[in-house]
Design goal:
Length: 357
């Protein structure tokens, strides 16, 4: 026993020293540079776009769905609210008040999509929550996730990319020479967004794998037969094939359960493959089931699961593919300055100290 104690002491001290070193490195990393700026910016664009589309899709019926004289009366809507929930639409029975709040939702969402920033994020959160809580009958799903993520976004730098002044804003972030509280707050908000998304997918995959229809591989067949979501007869016909329907059912479970592990993986191709698979799945939901806003919101959440360096490597690959295509399409013997390789991802060009997590 004495021998074990004498041998275990240095071993335990070594492990403790290693653990403390890892914690110090992680804290320094959290405080020295903002991470996942590109994914947060894409999430901002998607939430703003989805809210604008949600409003404009039923613009002509806005008073029937959300107005003071809606079929879902203000009294009924108030009774449906959970503790602590609110809606600006329920503050007054005035039609003028409704029109002001509704059109403010559209304008703020558009400004949030384009510009971002913490002030607009707070305004977006208040107005989006208000719209969702006014009439929960017409929500597509994904709204609960968006309501949570937009709160976390208040603490992040959401306009470091794809926004006016984004280049100067990134230069200011890189110019910081010492760790700052603002950097820690941003990273905490960003990682909470990723954590919430990972938990959602893992829970969804877990509940699927415990269901008999998903275990038997026939869930997609029955989903494709739901009357309200039959946007394409081709989709229903494809899911009617035993092999296709079973493969899609099992693939869905696998992709959802794998996301938390893919996020933590050190292999970039695992993260990219899993994220692109989930985004493809939601594009299929949008096209085949008509759940456009739901699909957009989920794709926005998926975007935060990739690191900034992942987006930069995707940009490099996209530029390489564009260059090769331009060379192949150029007429034989043509003389020019070279193929045009201008990419929509040009803002993602590698920067000094660009390694991210």
């Amino acid at each position: 026993m004495d021998g074990l104690r004498s041998g275990g002491g240095p071993l335990m001290r070594g492990w403790a020293k290693y653990g403390l070193a890892r914690i110090d490195a992680g804290l320094l990393r959290m405080a020295s540079r903002e991470h996942r700026l590109i994914g947060i910016a894409l999430l901002r664009i998607v939430i703003g776009l989805a809210t604008v589309m949600y409003c404009l899709a039923d613009y002509g019926n806005r008073r029937f769905l959300w107005g003071p004289d809606s079929y879902n009366s203000i009294h009924t809507a108030k009774a449906a609210l959970t503790h602590g929930a609110f809606s600006l639409y329920l503050f007054s029975h005035s039609t003028v008040w409704f029109e002001i709040v509704f059109h403010a939702t559209i304008l703020v969402s558009a400004a949030f999509m384009v510009c971002g920033g913490r002030v607009l994020t707070v305004a977006q959160a208040v107005l989006m929550w208000s719209l969702h809580n006014r009439n929960q009958d017409v929500l597509e799903g994904g709204d609960n996730l968006a309501q949570i993520l937009v709160i976390f976004m208040v603490f992040t730098v959401s306009n470091a990319y794809f926004a006016p002044g984004a280049k100067a804003r990134r230069a200011g972030l890189r110019a910081r020479s010492a760790p700052s509280v603002g950097t820690v707050v941003h990273n905490l908000g960003a990682y909470l967004i990723v954590f919430q998304t990972a938990v959602l997918y893992f829970a969804a995959g877990y509940w699927k794998i415990t269901g008999k229809m998903w275990q038997d591989g026939v869930a997609m067949y029955y989903i494709s037969r739901i009357t309200g979501f039959q946007m394409s007869s081709t989709y229903a016909h494809a899911m009617g094939n035993a092999y296709v329907g079973t493969a899609v059912s099992y693939f869905t479970i696998f992709a959802e359960l794998a996301l938390p592990f893919a996020i933590l993986s050190a292999r970039a191709w695992v993260r990219k493959a899993n994220t692109l698979a989930l985004e493809g799945m939601h594009l299929g939901i949008m096209a085949c089931m008509g759940l456009v806003c739901f699909g957009l919101l989920m794709i926005g959440a998926d975007c935060t699961c990739l690191r900034d360096e992942d987006y930069r490597s995707l940009k490099k690959r996209a530029v390489g593919v564009t260059s090769r295509l331009a060379q192949r399409l150029r007429p034989d013997g043509a003389v020019g300055a070279g193929p045009a390789t201008v990419s929509a991802f040009a803002v993602l060009a590698p920067r000094e100290g660009a390694v991210d997590a």
